[in-house]
């Protein structure tokens, strides 16, 4: 599982950090002079909004952030705040609030059955809130007014929610694990885990750990380690005999991404909910799927299997990071498309971006046809549908062409003359005679991913009249779908009349 993560992230990070075509977001919205008391107030406001119950716990300041649970009714969290940067303190609070909400939502009994399942599960809860909510674009639309109201009005008025979103998601090479961002962090864990395994298997001598560490840092993150205190000696885990502990951080991160994926399937407007500060359905979902079960399952895998229908699977984590950082760092992708259809006279339009711009393109394309809102929504829904369809193939993330699409659109008359005969299967050119009725035309957008996958055709009606009479589902499927999907749906090997 970790190998999959490593294989996906090493090239992605290299592209994000070294690519000539990338733009690094500014960290300016994070830096300044910020009052610790106000930061604490901001943290309390935001984590309470997210669902931390202050009547069943406390939020305090400490040197190192932690969560302590006396009982379900008293869960205390702490964070530390700096005066020259405000995000780290808040991130610590959100992380600890994620741990705390797990504790607060266990069944309120004294049974050991109603205690957290495992370290990895615990970490999945903190990372769910810290990353999938707290590092998301809609969250900063929600939180920006709080930044201006509570922290510093004149400072934050200079920046949009998008500026803040980009700043908190900046990627950089870090020698130190605890300072690493979410994209490079997994490699810090993998490096340690591989060393631990080799030491325990007798393949690596303890005296050679530092050398191996430095080699792996170069290999995985392209970082030169100047001294061992910034290298193999930076963590307290091994000196405290905590072997096999580091993987729980990454298992938690993988589980968090998987939980978010399924949560977003169950709450389709999750982003709108986050943006409006309505976190209740999300908290309830986590309670239903994770918290209330305590230790009733033998493992995290068993719980996910039963609750989500699938054991721990790193593809959601890889997908999340790839999609997010490709878009954030505007990693350009190139495409090659073979055009097979001569029935359509395509206006070739290539799209050089990932998913968001695809939606944008569709909106433009659809608006360009001046069709009514209902049809627009349908078209967009359909586009989203196949964007979801393409998600699974993102799991080989360094192959960017897999989620690059090319879209052609062409007018298609569907009022065919009754005696029209379509060509036999396999014909490259299909001639269609049509009636003069120009109102009964629709636009068909055909989309193909750069690796050759055909997506469902999108049909756009120009006039309300046409749309009213003929909806996509009662279109003659043979005239459109069979042609486009001929690789899948074969046409009968005889002439076909419409
Ligand atoms: Zn934690």
From TrEMBL:
Record key words, sorted: Carboxypeptidase, Hydrolase, Protease
One Pfam family it belongs to: Peptidase_M32
Domain of life per record: Eukaryota
GO MF annotation terms: metallocarboxypeptidase activity
Entry-linked InterPro entries: Peptidase_M32_Taq
Biological process terms in GO annotation: proteolysis
Family matches, as CDD domains: M32_Taq
Protein name as annotated: Peptidase M32 carboxypeptidase Taq metallopeptidase family protein
Organism: Nitzschia inconspicua
């Amino acid at each position: 599982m970790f190998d999959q993560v490593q294989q996906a992230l090493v090239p992605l990070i290299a592209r994000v950090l070294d690519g000539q075509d990338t733009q690094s977001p500014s960290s300016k919205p994070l830096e300044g002079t910020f009052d610790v008391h106000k930061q604490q107030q901001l943290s309390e406001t935001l984590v309470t909004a997210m669902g931390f119950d202050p009547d069943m716990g406390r939020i305090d300041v400490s040197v190192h952030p932690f969560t302590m649970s006396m009982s379900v009714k008293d869960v205390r969290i702490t964070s530390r705040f700096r005066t020259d940067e405000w995000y780290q303190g808040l991130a610590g609070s959100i992380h600890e609030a994620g741990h705390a909400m797990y504790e607060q939502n266990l069944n309120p009994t004294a049974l050991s059955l109603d205690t957290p399942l495992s370290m990895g599960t615990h970490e999945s809860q903190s990372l769910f809130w810290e990353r999938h909510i707290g590092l998301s674009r809609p969250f900063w639309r929600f939180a920006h007014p709080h930044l201006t109201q509570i922290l510093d009005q004149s400072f934050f008025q200079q920046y949009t929610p998008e500026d803040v979103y980009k700043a908190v998601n900046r990627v950089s090479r870090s020698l130190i694990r605890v300072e690493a961002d979410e994209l490079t962090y997994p490699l810090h864990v993998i490096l340690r885990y591989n060393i631990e395994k080799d030491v325990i298997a007798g393949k690596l001598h303890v005296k050679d750990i530092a050398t191996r560490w430095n080699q792996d840092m170069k290999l995985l993150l392209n970082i030169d380690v100047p001294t061992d205190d910034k290298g193999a000696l930076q963590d307290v885990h091994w000196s405290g005999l905590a072997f096999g502990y580091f993987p729980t951080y990454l298992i938690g991160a993988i589980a968090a991404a998987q939980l978010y994926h399924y949560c977003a399937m169950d709450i389709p407007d999750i982003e709108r909910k986050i943006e409006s500060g309505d976190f209740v359905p999300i908290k309830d979902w986590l309670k239903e799927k994770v918290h209330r079960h305590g230790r009733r399952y033998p493992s995290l895998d068993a719980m996910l299997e039963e609750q989500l229908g699938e054991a721990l699977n790193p593809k959601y984590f890889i997908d999340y990071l790839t999609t997010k950082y490709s878009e954030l760092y505007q990693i350009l992708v190139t495409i090659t498309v073979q055009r097979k259809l001569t029935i359509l006279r395509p206006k070739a339009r290539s799209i050089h971006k990932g998913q968001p711009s695809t939606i944008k393109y569709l909106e433009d394309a659809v608006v360009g046809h001046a069709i009514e809102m209902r049809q627009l929504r349908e078209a967009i829904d359909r586009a989203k549908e196949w964007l979801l369809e393409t998600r699974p193939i993102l799991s080989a993330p360094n192959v960017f062409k897999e989620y690059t699409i090319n879209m052609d659109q062409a007018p298609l008359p569907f009022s065919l003359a009754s005696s029209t005969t379509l060509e036999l299967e396999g014909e490259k050119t299909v001639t269609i005679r049509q009636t003069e009725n120009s109102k009964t035309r629709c636009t068909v957008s055909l989309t193909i991913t750069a690796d050759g996958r055909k997506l469902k055709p999108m049909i756009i009606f120009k006039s309300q009249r046409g749309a009213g009479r003929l909806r996509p589902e009662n279109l003659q499927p043979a005239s459109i779908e069979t042609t486009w999907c001929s690789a899948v749906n074969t046409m009968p090997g005889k002439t076909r009349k419409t």
